Amino acid sequence: MERTGIIIVAGGSGRRAGGARPKQFAFLGGMPVLARTINNFAAAMPGAEIVAVLPEQHIEFWNNLAARFDVAAHAVVAGGAERFDSVKNGLAALTTDPELIAVQDGVRPLGTAAMIRRVAAAAARHGAAIPVVEAVDSFRETEGEPDAEGIVPSRIVDRRRLRIVQTPQFFRADVLRRAYEADYRTEFTDDASVVEAAGHPVCLTEGERENLKLTTPEDFTIAEALIAAREEAEEEQAATDAKHL
Ligand SMILES: Nc1ccn([C@@H]2O[C@H](COP(=O)(O)OP(=O)(O)OP(=O)(O)O)[C@@H](O)[C@H]2O)c(=O)n1
Ligand SMILES: C[C@](O)(CO)[C@H](O)COP(=O)(O)O
Predict the structure, then answer these.
(1) Rounded Cα–Cα distance for residues 237 and 240 (Å)
(2) Domain range spanning residue 61?
(3) Structural domain count of the chain
(4) Which residue, 60, 89, 109, 139, is most buried by CB atoms nearer than 10 A?
(5) What distance in Å separates the CA atoms of residue 168 and residue 129, rounded to the nearest whole number?
(6) Where is this site: Transition state stabilizer (predicted)?
(7) Angle of helix 33-44 relative to helix 59-66, nearest 10 degrees?
């Protein structure tokens, strides 16, 4: 397997989620969200170098919090104003010269090991790969300003052509590093957009609907329920296995 580096970006302020501290430090199923995300990757990609990118003012808080939980080995580095800047800082902090690099949202703790490895394998082959899922809602593109009655002009978009983009986004190290030499642009909402702007095509792989990004308070409610259901299924499986011993 390729030497792998994982950059877990958790340098945001979590404005949309609210709360006293950024959402990556909130508890989910009895554990900080960021601890879950780090451990998920350590389990899926044993031996990978992990760097967590945090708001500078929360680094000491995180070190104290992480010491209370069983969190897999990881280095910590300060983030920047935009996600783009945080990824750049993460890239600079990798020390093992990885051949493959993943960028993962710190607030996406629920991706399975099978999905993570699938994206990694696609990136090893194609240079750049991301997980996506099909859109299930209808979409409208708005055009222009509201009219005198407050109606915003809009038109339907063909959702069969749309995909919802997730992380982890995996890249060959040379591809990602070269792409991140660019200056920041507002359309860089993920790493695939940066790599694509540098001229490298991105391979779409199958993501998972449960691979939620915790963005608003409602997402936490859904994630709690998913974790409880997974734990229950694991307990049932363990009981079945014990019966068959
Ligand atoms: N300057 C930033 C901004 C975001 N992120 C990280 O990128 C991921 C996805 O971003 P998002 O969900 O938008 O997080 P926030 O920026 O914290 O949320 P909000 O926009 O609601 O403030 C998160 O793990 C977040 O911590 C980061 O590392 N550095
Ligand atoms: C990277 C990402 O999670 C892919 O869906 C998304 O683009 C992050 O967007 P945000 O506005 O920073 O949450």
Answers:
(1) 5
(2) 4-132+162-243
(3) 1
(4) 109
(5) 9
(6) 16, 23
(7) 70
Question: Cα of 105 to ligand 1 centre, how many Å?
Answer: 8
Q: Which residue has the tokens 């340098």?
A: 11
For ligand 2, atom 3: residue with the closest CA:
166
Mean pLDDT of the region 54-78: 98
Is residue 154 situated within a structural domain? Answer: no
Cα 210 to ligand 2 centroid, rounded to whole Å = 15
168-223 pLDDT, tens digit per residue, is: 999 999 999 999 999 999 999 999 999 999 999 999 999 999 999 999 999 999 99
Neighbours of 176 (CB within 10 A): 28
Ligand closest to CA 17: 1
* Residue 146 belongs to a domain: no
Token pair of 208, please? 């998972």
- If one counts every other C-beta atom within 10 angstroms of the C-beta of residue 8, the result is 29
Ligand 2 atom having least distance to the Cα of 189: 7
Task: Specify the pTM.
Answer: 0.96
Of ligand 2's listed atoms, the one at least distance from the Cα of 164 is: 5
Within-domain flag for 157: no
Q: Is residue 141 part of a domain?
A: no
Instruction: pLDDT band for 1, please (50, 70, 90 cuts).
Output: confident
